Amino acid sequence: MMSLFKGLGAAAIVLAAITWGGQAKADCEDPKNAFDDVYCYSKLYIEADGDLNKAYGELTKLLSKDEKATLKKGELAWMRARNGKCSKQEGDDNFVDLDCAVEETRHRIAFLEERTQECKASKCQSSKLGD
Fold first, then answer.
1. Contacts of 88 (CB under 8 A, 6+ apart)
2. What is the pTM assigned to this prediction?
3. Which of 14, 36, 75, 117 is most buried when burial is the number of CB atoms within 10 A of its CB?
């Protein structure tokens, strides 16, 4: 599990599912304690991240070189915004709200899938790729 969050630094990593309700919780089968919650949310995040990578890859197949560069800039900006919204650092500890991360990732998947449908239906709208 620690290897998933190498980028958070060498400090102790604490995963926190701050929101106890929500969609991610509904997808888990009867967690018994906070450790079960973290495990469950981690699985959901890994699944959502895989779906995100798939959606991103599908969209890039339809884009020109310049459009891919625009999409990449948008993706990096989205990652910074997600990280700012769903994580925080206190001293040497890093906290990640996995429910937030799952929700934000699912929203991004929907965004990428919408762009893919636009590209397939007509012409890709380059102006939206940087969002």
1. 94, 95
2. 0.75
3. 75
Distance CA 71, CA 126 (A): 8
Count of structural domains within the chain: 1
CA 112 to chain centroid = 12
Residue 86 or 12, more confident: 86
Q: What is the DSSP letter of 88?
A: E
Give the list of residues 6+ apart from residue 57 with CB closer than 8 angstroms, or none. Answer: none
Instruction: State how far the Cα of 113 lies from the Cα of 119, in Å rounded to an integer.
Output: 10
- Burial of 94-112, coded b for 16+ CB within 10 Å and e otherwise, reads bebbbbbbbbbbbebbebb
- Which position has the token pair 């790729």? 129
pLDDT tens digits along 22-72: 444 444 677 788 888 888 889 999 999 999 999 999 999 999 999 999 999
